[in-house]
């Protein structure tokens, strides 16, 4: 047994600068988490809420327009800097636009007061504009068994947010798509072939109902009467394309391709088939859905590979139509490559931080512009100490970050001909592990005298972290 004692003192955890070290973190907006379009009636009142985490507790503001812009809020729009609530007292053309929440917290750093700003995705406010048609009733004169289109005339702010309907007669009997009738995406009523009895429908009235409209307001359009010339001798009319158009739709959305044919056969019903680019007939499955007697093809969850030509063809008895091409253009705002989008990061003081920003456009679209960088909501070109930042074509590096001066939020913005995409990364800086004291690397033991050895290690780190020790 050794004639000396080794004492391992309890290890202490403390800050090497208790007065300066604080628990800090940049703001992080979690609501709203994604861009949204809000369609509101004129003079509507409503609120949008913004919520964020962060230490110290963030303060809120709202700005209209592009990031870094100076668009001020209308006198009918205000916000609460404590709760983050944006209040609209009315909606008119002046209030339309993009609104972003800015959450800011402040720190006392070595260079004075610093701050970090997180910016929300845009909330797009639009006023519902649907102008009703107040003209007199119109007559549509058509021969029996012939195709006709009855137009639905409205001025609409966004067709994706309205539902079209058709009503008939004094009792407003609804008209639905069936084997002869079809309502297209613009609200027009297509009748494959008219019958003498269609005059019994009376007045045909198109209308628009606004989705998610709490007031349930319906906007009526032009009304029509069918005047049908009777045909005594029925003849077979070969199928012929009357309506189709190429479609442009965004990635990850659904696209609706439409083909409307005319034609009549007293003994046979018309059949419509759709074919993919490789010539295979399309059937309803998880990706595709045939609708309205196969006049419409819905393609779901669009990816780049869905772009291209699709074909529709009608058959009526022994007669077949020519093949009609419908081109689907899959487009949209730039989207980020895998693992190349900005994301939040926590890093030790003194390290360099690199924020990636590499995006691409949809297939066959022009490539996106080089990224624009914003630091705490301000263009990087206007930042002091620009030598601290290194900008490359697909990344931004912040050199030797310090707490709290370099706790910040960085946003990159890329655009193409379709639109703009932004993504934010907030950077939190922690104090590194600092060894305050450690035992001598070499200690001499005299076996005859004995000695108490002190192997205590004292270290500090950021106040938000807990140190753990392990001896080997």
Structural topology:
Elements: E1 5-7, E2 25-31, E3 36-40, E4 46-48, E5 51-55, E6 59-64, E7 77-79, E8 86-88, E9 97-109, E10 112-119, E11 123-127, E12 138-143, E13 148-150, E14 162-168, E15 173-175, E16 181-183, E17 189-191, E18 204-210, E19 218-229, E20 237-244, E21 247-250, E22 255-264, E23 271-275, E24 288-291, E25 296-299, E26 308-316, E27 319-320, E28 324-331, E29 335-336, E30 345-348, E31 353-356, E32 359-360, E33 372-375, E34 378-379, E35 389-391, E36 395-398, E37 408-415, E38 420-430, E39 434-437, E40 452-454, E41 458-460
Parallel strand pairs: 1-40, 3-11, 12-19, 21-28, 30-38
Antiparallel strand pairs: 2-5, 4-8, 6-9, 7-8, 9-10, 9-11, 13-17, 14-15, 14-18, 16-17, 18-19, 20-22, 22-25, 23-26, 24-25, 26-27, 26-28, 29-32, 31-36, 33-34, 33-37, 35-36, 37-38, 39-41
Keywords: Disulfide bond, Repeat, Signal
Domain Ig-like: 27-120, 239-326, 334-428
InterPro entries: Ig-like_dom, Ig-like_dom_sf, Ig-like_fold, Ig_I-set, Ig_sub, Ig_sub2
Secondary-structure-based class equals mainly beta
Number of helices: 0
Outline the low-pLDDT stretches: 1-19
Largest sheet: 5 strands, mixed
- The percentage of residues in β strands lies in over 45%
Please estimate the helix content. under 10%
Average pLDDT: 88
The count of strands amounts to 41
Radius of gyration over C-alpha positions, nearest whole angstrom: 34 Å
Question: Distance between termini?
Answer: 22 Å
Task: Please give the oligomerization state of what you see.
Answer: single chain
Overall spatial form: elongated
């Amino acid at each position: 047994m050794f004639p000396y004692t080794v004492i391992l003192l309890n290890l202490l955890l403390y800050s090497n600068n208790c007065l300066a070290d604080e628990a800090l973190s940049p703001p992080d907006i979690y609501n709203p988490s994604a861009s949204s379009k809000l369609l509101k009636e004129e003079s509507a009142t409503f609120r949008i809420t913004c919520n964020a985490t962060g230490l110290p507790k963030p303060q809120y503001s709202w700005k209209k327009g592009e990031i870094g812009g100076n668009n001020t809020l209308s006198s009918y729009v205000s916000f609460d800097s404590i709760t983050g609530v944006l209040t609209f007292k009315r909606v008119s053309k002046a209030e339309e636009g993009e609104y972003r929440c800015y959450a800011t917290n402040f720190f006392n750093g070595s260079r004075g007061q610093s701050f970090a700003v997180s910016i929300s995705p845009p909330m797009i406010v639009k006023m519902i504009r649907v102008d009703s048609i107040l003209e007199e009733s119109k007559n549509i004169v058509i021969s029996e068994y012939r195709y006709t289109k009855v137009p639905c005339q409205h001025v609409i702010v966004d067709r994706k947010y309205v539902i079209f309907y058709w009503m008939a007669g004094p009792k407003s009997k609804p008209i639905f798509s069936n084997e002869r009738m079809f309502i297209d995406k613009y609200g027009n009523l297509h009748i494959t072939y008219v019958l003498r009895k269609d005059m019994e429908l009376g007045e045909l009235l198109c209308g628009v109902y606004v989705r998610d409209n709490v007031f349930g307001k319906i906007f009526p359009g032009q009304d029509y009467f069918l005047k049908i010339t009777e045909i005594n001798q029925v003849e077979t009319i070969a199928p012929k394309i009357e309506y189709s158009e190429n479609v442009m739709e965004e990635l990850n959305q659904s696209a609706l391709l439409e083909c409307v044919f005319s034609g009549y056969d007293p003994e046979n019903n018309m059949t419509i088939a759709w074919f993919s680019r490789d010539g295979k007939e399309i059937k309803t499955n998880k990706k595709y859905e045939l609708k309205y007697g196969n006049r419409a093809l819905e393609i779901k969850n669009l990816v780049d590979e869905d772009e291209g030509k699709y074909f529709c063809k009608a058959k009526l008895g022994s007669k077949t139509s020519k093949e009609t091409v419908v081109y689907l253009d899959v487009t949209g705002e730039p989207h980020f490559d895998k693992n190349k989008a900005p994301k939040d990061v926590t890093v030790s003081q003194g390290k360099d931080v690199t924020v990636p920003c590499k995006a691409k456009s949809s297939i066959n679209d022009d490539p996106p512009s080089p990224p624009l960088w914003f630091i705490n909501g301000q263009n990087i070109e206007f930042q002091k100490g620009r030598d601290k930042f290194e900008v490359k074509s697909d990344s931004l590096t912040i050199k030797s970050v310090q707490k709290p001066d370099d706790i910040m939020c960085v946003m990159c913005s890329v655009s193409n001909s379709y639109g703009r995409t932004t993504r934010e990364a907030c950077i939190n800086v922690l104090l590194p592990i600092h060894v305050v004291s450690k035992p001598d690397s070499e200690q001499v033991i005299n076996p005859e005298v004995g000695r108490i050895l002190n192997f205590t290690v004292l270290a500090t780190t950021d106040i938000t972290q807990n140190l753990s020790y392990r001896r080997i």
